[in-house]
Specification:
Layout lengths: L1 H15 L4 E12 L5 E11 H10 L5 H14 L5 E8 L2 E10 L5 E3 L3 E5 L5 E5 L4 H10 L4 E7 L4 E6 L14 E5 L7 E6 L2
Parallel strand pairs: 1-8
Antiparallel strand pairs: 1-2, 2-4, 3-4, 5-6, 6-7, 7-11, 8-10, 9-11
Helix pairs in contact: 1-3
Length: 197
């Protein structure tokens, strides 16, 4: 049993930095500027999926060793430039405050959950991670609940090519933001924008 827990802990330590997070309660925002540079932020409680899997399998909170390892990972994540806060809350949950800025054309990747990148045609793409049917089923079995919001602000010289936002700016785009209310893994924000120079 100890070997199994050690293996899970080792796996958790290995995959944490490559992404196994699922936002549970969060607020995220992206602001694109007239020169196509942008800023982004993410604040909220986030589940580490391998720990949630361990809890579901054993019916217990993570072991003391797993909690120590996840605490150490939070401390390492805190050293990243965009991470203002990474606090391990216990039970496989983290509290993050992530804020960053990028120049035009630079990519941002927030916890392998939210990505911003510019394609070869100069179009800025904003999207959350896409999950296949099997992954969605596995997450549903874990009973993790998602409740969050993403807001995207655009400059006047931006052209929206496509979006699935749940709400859009009013009065010809002068007031408000493009927003997504996210309540499940099925709610996947997607947006494609071209900033005219």
């Amino acid at each position: 049993m100890k070997k199994l827990i050690s293996a899970i802990t080792a796996l958790a330590a290995t995959v944490l930095l490559s992404g196994c997070f699922l936002p549970e309660n969060f607020q995220a925002s992206i602001k694109i500027n007239e020169d196509a540079s942008y800023s982004f932020s993410y604040q909220g409680k986030t589940a580490f999926v391998p720990a949630a899997m361990e809890m579901k399998r054993t019916g217990q909170s993570p072991s003391a060793k797993t909690n120590q390892d996840l605490q150490a990972q939070a401390e390492r994540l805190s050293q990243r430039p965009d991470v203002k806060k990474a606090k391990y809350l216990g039970d496989g949950r983290f509290d993050f405050d992530i804020q960053g800025q990028r120049k035009a054309g630079q990519q941002a990747d927030v916890l392998d959950v939210l990505k911003v990148y510019t394609d070869k045609d100069g179009v800025i793409n904003i999207s959350s991670i896409g999950l296949n049917g099997k992954d969605k089923d596995e997450l549903a079995k874990l009973g993790l609940k998602i409740e969050g919001k993403l807001d995207v602000s655009l400059p006047k010289n931006a052209e929206v090519i496509s979006t699935n936002a749940t709400s859009k700016p009013s009065l010809f785009g002068l007031f408000g933001t493009y927003s997504w209310k996210i309540g499940s893994v099925e709610d996947r924000p997607v947006m494609r924008v071209r900033v005219r120079q």
